[in-house]
Amino acid sequence: MKTLFIGTAIAMTAVTSAAAQELSYGRLIADFEMLSTPGGDVNASILGAEAGVRVQDFDFWINGTQVTISPDGVPVNLTADVSTIGAGYTFSGNYRVDVSSSNLGFGIGGTGLSIGLDEIGVAYDNGTFFGRLSFADINQPVPGVDGLLGLHVGYQFNDYADVSMSVHALDETSGTVDPLIILGGEYDTGQWGVKAEYASISLGGTDLSLISLAGNYQINDQWGVRGAYSTADIAGTDADLIRLGGTYNVNDKYTLYAGLSRVDLGGFEVDGFNIGMTMDFGDKPASYETTADRLLGVIETAGAFDY
User: Fold this and answer.
1) Is the residue at 53 inside a domain?
2) Three-class DSSP category at 159
3) What is the reported pLDDT for 177?
4) Which residues is 61 bridged to in the sheet?
5) 3-state SS string over 216-258?
């Protein structure tokens, strides 16, 4: 299974070596969670890295995210990771074609499952409206499943507000999985911002849905506060998550943060505390987002890690 530690090293090398080129965007994140459950304490870590480099009309990127969960008293860790490497070419000003290869891995101790996605996408982006069509071949064969189709569209009203929608459908013979629909909207003035997201899918007749609302306020150049609320309906069972925290901007790229969280899963409560840091080197255009990016975004929304 690929791990983020390899991806992080490669991405950081790419960021450094790209200084002479044009670094389009990049991000590093390290987050540590301490969770308290009725059954015992759990530690969790999230590591992520991304770098995109542009050379004339070509762009190249690599990213990776790894989550490690370590319950007390359990001799093995639970891990999940996503890594992607890709390249794109922009032509006629607003059109772009890209190819990428992603790996989604899940592991318990030394045993794991790995699923690969080899994707091709075609996009149009004029700065106000964008649309992207994609097809991802699932290169770990699943009976009755041939691939994953995607359509992602968005509109930017001004420098502060934008909305987007993506639909992802399995190319399958059984027809037991309905398309995954992701809706999102954001308003951000720089001093304060709000973000809302919705996702839904049906698996074999079981409906799953997620709604999330997040906000942030910058008190001054250094200090800020933020919070998020997510609620999910999992086959009729409600799950709610609340996060509240503060941030400290070391400069315009480096941010430290800490926060508290509470999860209520049908009466089963989990309290948590997290600390972390991020480094941002510019935003990745929404029209560049792959299917793996969109799927990972839903997980980040569910855990309120993207607020």
Assistant:
1) no
2) coil
3) 83
4) 52, 86
5) EEECCCCEEEEEEEEEEEECCEEEEEEEEEEEEECCCCEEEEE
- Predicted TM-score (pTM) of this structure: 0.85
99's CB contacts (< 8 A; 6+ apart) are: 86, 87, 88, 118, 119, 120, 121
Residues of the chain with pLDDT below 70 are: 1-22, 109-110, 140-144, 175, 303-307
- What are the beta bridge partners of residue 130? 125, 154
Do residues 189 and 301 make contact, with C-beta atoms less than 8 angstroms apart? no
Helix (H, G, I), strand (E, B) or coil at 296: helix
> Do the domain assignments include residue 43?
no
Taking the C-alpha atoms of residue 29 and residue 7, their distance in angstroms, rounded to an integer, is: 13
The verdict on residue 36 lying in a domain is no
Q: What is the DSSP letter of 177?
A: B
For residue 240, is it within any domain? Answer: yes
Q: For residue 127, give both structure tokens.
A: 């700065």
Question: For residues 51 and 25, what is the distance between their CA atoms, to the nearest angstrom?
Answer: 6
Q: Which two tokens stand for residue 154?
A: 């968005």
The number of domains in the chain is 1
The amino acid that residue 159 corresponds to is D
Q: Which two tokens stand for residue 71?
A: 């319950």
Q: List the CATH number of the domain containing 273.
A: 2.40.160.10
What the block records as the tokens of 41 is 């304490």
Nearest to 168 by CA among 284, 81, 295: 295
| CA angle (196 as vertex; 194, 202 as ends), nearest 5 | 170
Over the stretch 169-215, which tens digit does the pLDDT of each residue have?
988 777 678 899 999 999 999 899 999 999 999 888 888 999 999 99
Q: The tokens of 189 are what?
A: 């003035």
Task: Name the pairing type of β-strands 161-172 and 145-156.
Answer: antiparallel
| Residue partners of 92: CB distance under 8 A and separation at least 6 | none
Q: Which domain holds residue 108?
A: 87-302
